Amino acid sequence: MALVTLREVLQDARKRKYAVGGFNVFNFETLGAVVEVAEELKTPLVVGIPERLFKFVDVDTLSAAMVRVAKRAHVPIALHLDHGYTRDGIMKAIHWGFTSVMFDGSSLSFADNLNRTKEICRIAHSLGVSVEGELGYIGSCSNIEAISDEHLVTADAAAEFVDRTEVDALAVAIGNHHGAYRGRTMLNFSRLNELSSTIDIPLVMHGGAKLAAADYRNSISSGISKVNIATDMSLTAAEKLKSELSKKATSNYIHLMSVVKKGVKDSARSYMLNFDCILKAAAM
Question: Which stretches are transmembrane (predicted)?
Fold first, then answer.
């Protein structure tokens, strides 16, 4: 099944009412971990790198590995540029062979976000690459209670945005937030249902880490087709390193890599089990 577009993966998820995990990776261990779990559980997968990671990682080498692994996989995998902010970053991802890019214009005015997303869609679609956009506030909040209705995307705005940009998937603000887990997230399922019934493309949840099982179920039944797990991948890796070094400070790095990989696999598996995506790759 191998390398596919985001549009292909998410259209199936939307049709059959499950969510695909969008896992950001940052080295070979995390890449191998999420792909191996997806193959074990026979689930479709989205593997991403955020543009902000470019300054920390040799992305030319890592992206080549991502493409190679995806092409050899036994489950459908979309390779995704997460939170692309610049045209240069987006074009790099397309050049590497990614099948999906996200333009995050959520910090811009609605008009600027729409116009820039539309231009990215024009370029990407001409090359067979899917595009994800973002609307509303999904920032990193130190105080979850500070997220109010004014931060949430409205159905009218989403409908106009989707119609005029022709974006393939839309990340929406419904009370979710990026970054480290900071207590119980209060999701607005009424707004999510309204969005899902108004626009005819898959919806994406960013900041999907450590929600209650019921929140995942309700999100999926209300229209979410992809749940992004990013920061939690890094936190899980760091926690495993700290735990292992506290037991044996002289552990060698080769051993630590295997510990990190196992920890990330366990984490990814627990998320996938909540997304109702198990065995879905077999029917695609």
Answer: none
